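G.,

No rush on this.
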Amino acid sequence: MTTTVEQNAVRNALDLDLAAASTIAVAAGVVACLIVLVRTPWRFARNVVTIVHEAGHALVALLAGRRLQGITLHSDTSGVTVSRGRPSGPGMVLTTLAGYPAPALLGLGFAALVSADRLSVVLGIAAALLLGVLVMVRNAYGVLSVLLSAAVLGAVALGAGPELQAAFVYLMTWFLLFGAVRPVTELVGKRRRGAARDSDADQLARLTGVPAAVWLLVLGVLAVSCLVAGGMLLIEPAVAPATVSPG
């Protein structure tokens, strides 16, 4: 009896049998969802989302030809990325837009890599992202946040066995997917209370003339779409049927 190509990929990547891989995939999703939904763990874990959010701004700023000045990460889990260049135009619009979708798109990319038997690549990309942010961080709390994240990543990548590495990669991927949705809903709530009037959505409204509510809808649809698509890739080992081959 053999499994489908996708199932074999997951088992080879994790050095686990199909049942273990399926259990890890589903359990990690449940844990990640709880981390995002429960206030206390979310308060700490949200720093990771902020790091990716600001990395998204920074990367697109560089790709748009802007001069990146630095990244600041605050203890309230907010962040600021400063770049220089034209104060308007497509480059500024894309730079402003990049933050909120960044965790969702990174999570979707990680999910695709997991499905394609590339768990080590996921760890490598995460390490490169943290290194890039560390170079650009301009405050002590930001440096501490990035170093703590890097320490956890390094401990798992260098010292953990296959099962723990697999669980960590799945948990990190699920967390990015779920964690991309909550900041958008939080922003909607803040704006309803008359707060956060200088948010990315409001800046986009000023840059483009498109109402902030429309940009919030776009950000929400992107986050949810990535969650659905990435989630389908991650739970595939648990739902894909086994096939039988002759001999």
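When you get to it, here's the other one too:
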Amino acid sequence: MPEPPDAEAEAACRKAEHDREFAAFVEDSYHRVEQILLARCWDREVVQDALNDAYLHGRVQWPKIRSYAKPIGWLIITARNKIRKEQQRRQREATVAPEDLPPAPAGDAADSWEAEELLRTWLHQLPSRHAEVFQMERAGFSNHEIAHVLGLAESSIRAYKLAAKRRLRELAQEAGYDGRRRLGGSRGSR
């Protein structure tokens, strides 16, 4: 039985509103979620594929997840699951010898893009949970929100953040960075 004309118009109006809300959500969240996922998975293509799949699934589920306090958390969990499944599939297909892996990018962090690449390289030297928590904090999540999304205790989140920051500081010092200046630079001694 067809819907009355008023109900059809109302449904179309509600769909248009949901489309606008979802488009704004995607624009606001895509880069933050991508950075969080890249902290755990080095392969940008896998991350982008998982993100695209998660956003497609999110669009279908938008009427439900739009009411969540943090719909971005749902998106992160969905994308993480897709990444995990892709990594498991790849692992089953082939194992790569360490000497066949590409070298980690190195260089001077002269601009913000290079600094981000250097940070991503260092994040991949951390345990994946530490890197993920660190990136979520950088994206503006509180300890409580991170704990809720990852299903951990807040005390664990604090410990992971502390350990991640300590290790990143060590890696920066090993690379010759001290505070905001690079050691041995042309500015002389302090």
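The radius of gyration is 21 Å. Strands lie at 177-178, 181-182.

Enjoy the weekend,
O.
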